[in-house]
Amino acid sequence: MILEGLSARAAGWVCMVAMATVVERRRRFNINDKIKELGTLLPKNMEGSSSELNGKDGRVNKGTILKGTVDYVKELKLEVSMLRRNDELVMALRNENAMLQKRVASKVEQQLSPSKDGIIGVTFYIFVDMCENNLQLENHANRLQSLRKELNYVKETDWQYDSVEKILGQN
Questions:
Q1: Three-state secondary structure call for residue 60
Q2: Residue 138 pLDDT
Q3: How many domains would you assign to the chain?
Q4: pTM for this structure?
């Protein structure tokens, strides 16, 4: 054996160095394996996800994979925040719609109940309430239409990280 001519202390030192080498090799292998896995998870249309992954010698470019992964995570975070904002807008519109429906239902109920003003008074109030309700519904429809346009614009626009971060005020 190689350790036969060494003292016990030196033999222990050699074993410790050999064990550290094995541990370090396993650590490097795990890191490289996870970087390769990240490279397979990147979408094909991402910058740095296809031909740039392989260097001139045909090996995987780890730096490009890591950069592409960071960019992709940033893109996903932005998309999540935009989806949350859209969900909040949809919920607000649903609440507003429910409120308007309740108001219309209560107005109709009031108009159908007998009134001391008589038929002419009831007809006048019905006409005024209908005008108010039509105006509110028209405003609501316009707001929905503008939100749909904004949502379509967001979907159709190719967001770049720099411009989006400037818009959101992030650094």
A1: strand
A2: 82
A3: 1
A4: 0.50
